[in-house]
Structure formats: C-alpha cells, structure tokens
Write a structure and sequence with these properties.
heterodimer, A: 350 residues, alpha+beta, Rossmann fold, OB fold (Dihydrolipoamide Acetyltransferase, E2P), 2 domains, six-stranded mixed sheet, five-stranded antiparallel sheet, 8 helices, 21 strands, 24% helix, B: 263 residues, mainly alpha, MetI-like fold
C-alpha cells in the first residue's frame, strides 16, 4: 500500500500533447478513477505510473520517493490490462504464480499464496485450465488474481471491465470493489464509462485533452461540476446561457434564473441535472422561490420506473427525468412549466 | 468445416497423374536401383545391399556427409538465434532505416545462387577469410537468415505486446520475460525456421562448391564430383538416404508451420 503522487507531469508523442502538466494525489488505500474520453491522456498517465512510459517533465512519487529511475519490474505495481494479457501457454495456476516464480519463492509458499488468492477471486478448482478454456469473467478474475498475488503497492487497471457484457460488468464491479476493500490496495483505474467511475471509485479525476479538468468524490463532482464538459461528460445536464448577475443568471429574454447564495463564482453558464427538475401543468401555481420556465413537450420516453421528457424551450432541447408516480405521461405538444430549486443551479465554466 | 467435393474430370486425372509421375517416378526408380546388384540397371531386379556396403567403405562420401551435417547444424543454430532476435527487434522497435532493412531481406532469396557464390568467393578471398568449412558456414548463415526472419516474423504477428508488459509489471526481468513468455509463444515458429535453415544449408550446392577447398567438401559437392568421374550406384544409395532425411525434415517443417498458423 502506498500513496502515489503525480507532479506537473507532461508527455508528448511527436506534436501530440498527451499530458499537459498534470498533478494528482492518489491517496493511500483509495480507489481512484481516471475518467475521460479517448485521447484525454488517461491511459498514458497510467502507463507512466506503471513505468512503461517516461514523462517528458514532472515527477511520479510512491510514498514520497521518486520512481522515475525505477524500472517496471522493480516498481511493485499490479497492472491489469484491457484484454487481460493472460499468458496463453500457461495454466491458470502458472499465470497467477508467475510473479512469485520470477521472484524465486519456495514452491510450497507459491502454492499457498496462489490458493489463497484464487479463493479470494472465487476461482478455486480452475487451476489446471488454460486461458482459452475460460469465460470472459473468469479471465478477468485470473488477471486480477495474478496482479494482487504479488501484493503490489499499487494496482493499476486499464479499462478492466470494457470487454465484458453488461450483466457481467455489473457483477464484476461489485466484485472488484469487494476485493479492493478486503485487500486495501491503492487502486487507480482508467475508464471512459461515467457510470463505472461513479459506482466504483471513491475519488474521480476527470481528464480532457491531457489536462486535469476536475477532481473530487463522485457525489461532489456529480453535484458540483465545474465546467460544461464535466457536467455533460459525467451524467446528463441542461445548459443555460446568459449574463452573470447578482443572485443568478439573466437570460436573453430577461428571465432571471436564481442560484443559491453559496454557489461560487458567477459564470455565464448554468448547468441543471435533468432529475433535479420537475414538470407542472401551466395552470398550477408554481412553488415559491423556484426557477420556472415555460416549455413544450416534444418527446417522451417511457422506461417503466421513470419517464424521460424532451422539451422545446426557445431554440434548445431540454431533458427532464420524472419518476413514475402514477400521474400518467404528459402528452406531446403539452405546454408545461419546468421548475427547479435555485440550489440545483450550478454555475459552470464554458 | 465441410467442403464440397469437386468431381475430378478425366483431363484433371491425367494432369494430376502426369505431375506425380514426373515428380516421383525418377526418385522411386533411383531408390529401387540402389538395391539392384546390377550396375547397368539390368532387369529383373536382383535385390542386394551391395551398394550400401560399398558406400559404408567409401570414406570420401562419408566424410563429406559428416561435413554437410556439421555445417548444417552450426548454420541452423547461428541463423535461428540471430534471425529470431532480428525478428523480435523488427517487431518491438521502430528505428531509422527499419523499412529499408526489411526490404533488403528479400533480394538474397531471389538472386541466383551462382552469382551469390561467385561474389562470396571473391569477397572472402579479398578480405582473407578464404575457403573452407568456416567460409561455408558464413555463406549458409547469410543465405538462411532471411528465411528465419520471415518465418519467425509471421508467428510474431499474432503476439500481443501486452504479454511482455504484463510479465514486466509482475516483476520479471527482460531476460525472464523473453525466456518464459516470448520464446514459448514463438517456439513453433522458431522450430520451423530452424528446420528451414537446416534444409537450406544441407541442400546447398552452388555456394558450397565455390567455397570448398579440395579434399574437404560437402555431400552435394562430393556427389557432383563423383558423377563427373563416372556414375556408380553408390550415388543412388547415398541419394536415397538423403531423400529420406530431407523428406523427414520437410514433414517436420510442415507440421510445425501448420501449428503456427492455427493457434
């Protein structure tokens, strides 16, 4: 276990800037998600921490010791690859034992530790299988077991769940979290899947074009996105443009959208999450102190427990999630009011 | 996979028969005649092992055979090792002139051996290497290297470079990674390449002929010399032995090469 710190790390591939002065602290024992679209530099950062790539400038430290000059095999990292990279010529046992064998441990100790870790990932009994005889989920567990059996100081996961189908992915998310808690290893994982980042990690760093955009706990980063990008990449958001003013945002048509007093610096954009909004028929009286705008239902998507409405408002399409509480679905073309509390207006950078 | 069986037309049968006839009948006739006691191929055949006995007493041919075997084995070891490492380097690294080097591998396969042999003789003479078995090994290695690189590279195409990274992250040194991960994966390709190198060297006549010193030569050269002096059925006997060995080696290549393609 260890705390990892990345300081002012930059990396260029030719004229392409993969990372631009990124600094992140990965807390000891934490589960940290690096979230970003492809090309955002998240995998490059992971490979720099692992030692497969070297930063052009900046430092990586493990427990405050710089590791730039430490080769991969001495860094004590457990890496899990997107395609698992299991050794095809070896059995499950030999795959998991590999890291111990190359360290020349005694064979009965190897057998004991491999047995323990296979029990942890619930693969006991499959020791003699070859990788091509395993299902996707089993391969993933072998890759995980192989990485943790060496008791690394840090676990690095590169899109570990992207090759699995949806049902298996949810199951493996639960498993990964359970194993990480049991072992308590500092874990950094890379994903472009916002839901995976939210459910698995206790801290998220969002990357875009090689720069760290925002960092925080999942709830924090979801409720208080700092930019339009953060608001729309992590979850859905309705964005309003206008002029910043005391107490809120003045829209072009003169309406003032209120924000709460502690909302932070004024910006000329507001983000509002679709589930924070509710709809009212235009003849009902709006509640006191809420933001209200008039819009027209252009589409409704009924999903059983909830309904997603798309509404035309000025020249924009807004999205509202409504719980199915038995009021029925609003018909297309209906003029309605969209309401939300000022506390849920989040000023964001462009 | 089930394939539709094509009906063989009578023209097709004749054609196929002709190909097999011209390819194998001379070889079969030679093999059969090596067991005929008559030197003049007289029929009916009088079965005998006399030519094999004579061969056993022919020190020149035996020595040449051992030379051939030795040169082929040394060539195989050197060419397989160098070629495999070269293929790995081509696979793993991007460097200036890589494309040019890869392209330069092909011409030696296409240039007539007579020309390569002549130029090697002149060059070796000029820089002082001279002629002899050591010169033959040099020549054969140069000749076999492109084959090895091409065969091993074909196998490497299916290799996932993440496997090496995984091994390194698990604490394996570069050497351990090569030993336990890369080479086991490459093994079928390397074995096929080694058999190729052996065949290239063992069957080589032209270059060996140019680089042989009088008295120390390889089997193909010795056979050629013997035939020029006057044909004896001993040649049939040694040829039959060589054909059996060559066939065995090539069947080995076919087997491992197929394995390489399947996995």
């Amino acid at each position: 276990m260890a705390a990892i710190a990345v300081r002012e790390v930059s990396k260029h591939f030719g004229s392409f800037t993969a990372l631009d002065r990124v600094s992140i602290d990965f807390p000891d024992g934490g589960f940290y998600a690096l979230l970003g679209p492809s090309g955002s530099g998240k995998t490059t950062l992971l490979r720099i921490i692992a030692g497969f790539e070297f930063p052009d400038s900046g430092h990586v430290t493990v427990d405050r010791e710089p590791v730039e000059s430490v080769p991969v095999e001495k860094r004590d990292v457990g890496m899990m690859f997107q395609n698992y990279a299991l050794f095809p010529n070896m059995t499950v046992f030999d795959n998991v034992a590999f890291g111990l064998t190359v360290r020349h441990l005694a064979s009965d100790e190897i057998r004991r530790r491999v047995g323990e870790v296979l029990e942890l990932v619930r693969l006991t009994g499959l020791e003699g299988r070859k990788p091509h005889q395993l299902s996707g989920g089993q391969k993933q567990r072998v890759a995980l077991a192989r990485a943790i059996v060496i008791e690394p100081r840090v676990m690095l996961l590169d899109e570990p769940l992207s090759a699995l189908d949806k049902a298996l992915r949810v199951e493996m998310q639960v498993e990964l979290r359970r194993i990480q808690r049991e072992v308590g290893i500092t874990t950094i994982f890379v994903t472009h899947d916002q839901e995976e980042a939210l459910t698995l990690s206790d801290r998220i760093g969002m990357l875009r074009d090689g720069a760290l955009v925002q960092e925080g706990a999942p709830g924090e980063i979801y409720e208080r996105p700092s930019s339009v990008f953060a608001a729309t990449f992590l979850g859905d958001a309705n964005i309003f443009q206008g002029t910043a003013e005391a107490g809120g945002l003045r829209l072009a048509d003169g309406t003032l959208l209120a924000v709460s007093d502690n909302a932070g610096a004024a910006q000329s954009q507001l983000a509002v999450r679709p589930e924070k909004m509710w709809l009212q028929r235009s003849d009902d009286t709006p509640a006191e102190g809420t933001n209200v705008i008039e819009a027209q239902v252009s589409q409704h998507i009924f999903a059983g427990s909830s309904v997603t409405y798309l509404l035309d408002w000025q020249d924009q399409t807004l999205k509202v999630f409504a719980q199915n509480r038995g009021e029925g679905v609003l018909p297309l073309g209906e003029r309605v009011r969209i309401c939300w509390s000022p506390a849920h207006s989040v000023p964001v950078e462009p | 996979m089930s394939r539709r069986r094509l009906p063989l037309t009578s023209l097709g049968r004749v054609y196929l028969g002709a190909v097999l006839l011209f390819l194998y009948v001379p070889i079969i006739v030679m093999a059969v005649m090596s067991f005929n006691a008559s030197q003049l191929y007289r029929l009916p055949i009088e079965w005998s092992g006399v030519w094999y006995e004579r061969l056993a007493g022919n020190a020149k041919l035996i020595d040449a055979g051992l030379n051939s075997l030795g040169v082929a084995l040394v060539t195989t070891v050197i060419a397989s090792a160098l070629g495999t490492l070269a293929a790995i380097a081509f696979f793993r690294y991007d460097f200036r002139g890589k494309k040019l080097l890869q392209i330069l591998l092909f011409p030696p396969i296409a240039i007539p051996w007579l020309i390569i042999g002549t130029s090697m003789l002149i060059f070796f003479f000029w820089i002082g290497i001279g002629r002899g078995l050591h010169a033959m090994v040099l020549g054969h290695v140069a000749l076999a290297l492109p084959y090895v690189i091409i065969v091993v590279s074909a196998r490497l195409k299916a290799f996932d470079p993440h496997l090496e990274e995984a091994a390194r992250s698990l604490g394996a040194s570069q050497w351990q990674t090569l030993r336990y991960v890369t080479l086991p994966f490459l093994a079928p390709g390397v074995i096929a390449a080694a058999l190729f190198a052996f065949a290239v060297s063992f069957d080589q006549f032209v270059i060996s002929y140019f680089l042989a010193v009088p008295g120390v030569s390889t089997l193909p050269v010795e056979i050629y010399t013997a035939i020029r002096k006057g044909f004896t059925p001993e040649i049939n006997a040694i040829s039959t032995i060589i054909i059996c060995l060559s066939m065995a080696v090539l069947l080995g290549v076919a087997r491992f090469y197929k394995f390489g393609g399947e996995r």
